[in-house]
């Protein structure tokens, strides 16, 4: 069955630096890869979606890459701020399925 | 503004009780989902529904059942609650398109004593 691995449970970085989170998957490539943000005690909120034929997607300070050869997606937050502190989840979806498969998340902390 | 609401934010029940968790969405979405989330285990899919009265088992359906009598409402039922069902329960909905965003409710933190 498909497995998703997010590089680490927790990541701590200095404010202003670029945060880079990794999402690796096994087996076949998804049609779409999504990233969500989750704050403590709340449900995840959608951030970005990238298709398998796209290499990169940007939205303000966020950038997502998708490498189907490496079976990996990278999620970058540039000029990070303490308000970016949250858990970030990657999720895979396939064109033939209704459900999305979620990774367990990386807890990002940005220190001032 | 799109919305998924869950009937309770916090719930405390006793072992053996029957528990109902309700979820309502106002986006006319076909797909609805129930997850539980535990530290270190991430989001695990319990059940999902792709249409009224239709349901499919997710990864951990044991001890749970669901009901979808109306398009906007998806209920999760714990027939006889047990302490290992103490968890955060999240409902989500999504449209038919493969690129459609999944919208989550605020979650219900259930404690079974």
Keywords:
heterodimer; A: 112 residues; mainly beta; six-stranded mixed beta sheet; five-stranded antiparallel beta sheet; 11 strands; 0% helix; 55% strand; B: 113 residues; seven-stranded mixed beta sheet; four-stranded antiparallel beta sheet; globular
Structure description:
Chain A is mostly beta strands and 112 residues long. Helices cover 0% and strands 55% of the residues of chain A. Chain A contains no helices and 11 strands. In chain A, strand 6 and strand 7 (62-67) form a beta hairpin. Chain A starts with a strand and ends with a strand. Chain B is mainly beta and 113 residues long. Chain B has no helices and 11 strands. In chain B, strands 2, 4, 5, 6, 9, 10 and 11 form a 7-stranded mixed sheet that branches. The N and C termini of chain B lie far apart (37 Å). The chains are: A mainly beta (112), B mainly beta (113). The interface between A and B is medium-sized, with 25 and 26 residues.
């Amino acid at each position: 069955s498909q497995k998703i691995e997010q590089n680490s449970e927790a990541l701590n970085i200095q404010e202003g630096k670029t945060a880079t989170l990794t999402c690796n998957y096994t087996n076949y490539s998804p049609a779409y890869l999504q990233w969500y943000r989750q704050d403590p005690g709340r449900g995840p909120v959608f951030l970005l979606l990238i298709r398998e034929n796209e290499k990169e997607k940007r939205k303000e300070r966020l950038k997502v890459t998708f490498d189907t050869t490496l079976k990996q997606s990278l999620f970058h937050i540039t000029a990070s701020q303490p308000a970016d502190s949250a858990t970030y989840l990657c999720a895979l979806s396939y064109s033939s399925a209704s459900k999305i498969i979620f990774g367990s998340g990386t807890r990002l902390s940005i220190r001032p | 503004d799109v919305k998924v609401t869950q009937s309770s934010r916090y719930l405390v029940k006793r072992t053996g009780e029957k528990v109902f968790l309700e979820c309502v969405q106002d986006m006319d979405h076909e797909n609805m989902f129930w997850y539980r989330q535990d530290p270190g285990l991430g989001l695990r899919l319990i059940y999902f529904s792709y249409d009224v009265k239709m349901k499919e088992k997710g990864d951990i359906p044991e001890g749970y059942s669901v009901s979808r009598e109306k398009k906007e409402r998806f209920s999760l039922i714990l027939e006889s609650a047990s302490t290992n069902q103490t968890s955060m329960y999240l409902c989500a909905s999504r449209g038919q398109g493969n690129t459609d965003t999944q919208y989550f409710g605020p979650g219900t933190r259930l404690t079974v004593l």
